[in-house]
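Tutorial, part two.
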Amino acid sequence: MKKAKNKLHLNTEDIYQKSVVRKCRIEENIDDSIRLDKYMGDRFSYYSRNKWQDLIGQGLVLLNGRKVKYTRTVNKGDEIEYHIIGMKEPEVDKNVTIIYDDGDLIIANKPANLPVIPSGKYYHNTLHTIVKQMLNCNINMLNRIDRETSGCVVMSRGHETASKFCAMIARRKNTKKKIKKTYIAVVENAINIEDNFIVEGYMLESGHEYYRRFQTLHKENIEGSKYSKTAFKTIKRFGDYAVVMARLYTGRMHQIRVHLYSKNLYMVGDKIYGKYGPKVFDDFIEKDIIPDGFFHRQALHAYSLEFNHPITDKLIKVKAPLAKDLREFIKKIKNI
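Running the prediction step on this input gives:
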């Protein structure tokens, strides 16, 4: 007999007690007709769409605090609460070091393979949880970098510092107190790379069959796009490879990777904007496979930060030593 997946189950209390609760908000603009099961399958692809239909039917996915059918459409601003049963979180690199701590403001050197905040399969194995346990205090996350990116991440113990830091970021176009962010990346297809170059333009989330949040760079300001600017300096060359330093003037999602891609430069290990395109990302998510010889993560490191302390106005300058795996990779390509 075929299971009625769209029938809501009423007796879910026992299941709730054995599950881990995750919450998310739909922040992006989405199609008005997208159903809950499709949205969950696209965003959290560790479960198939059919599996999400089962979970919604069991009452394990709540939309704005209510049990709904999986055919219900969702919109920007909706809050989703879902329960995961028996899922083991992936292993992460917990080798976090604190490179600045004045009693309130904290800057950590995050290793690669560690999410900053709960997302997808990760809930407890995050930088936020690890630093909270290390310092035995509540932590406010003040900036983020990708799970695969290593380097500087800013946090605070106090809410006043967090509020003023975020306000400083929001006003950076209109203030002399700017946050200077510098990254180091290893790129390929770089035999003709320039010594210094600037990439600027308008980034737009255009989508791709293998990655729905794929970004493209445009010269013109078109509807929905956001201005972006990065200054690059080539610091080492090794045949087809180069090591570059990237100074961010704006902070858009995937900015450095998209800007390199627009110049036909590919960040080593990039599963979305790399030389093989986002099919690599799809294969990695769906089948847990990557091409032979592919570097295990995107070769990007948040190297340095420079800004005025949001409370004391003291100039803060920090550098996070380059991650060991990147040092070893650079040594390897140097000897090719």
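The longest strand covers residues 226-238. In part three we will examine how such features are distributed along the chain.
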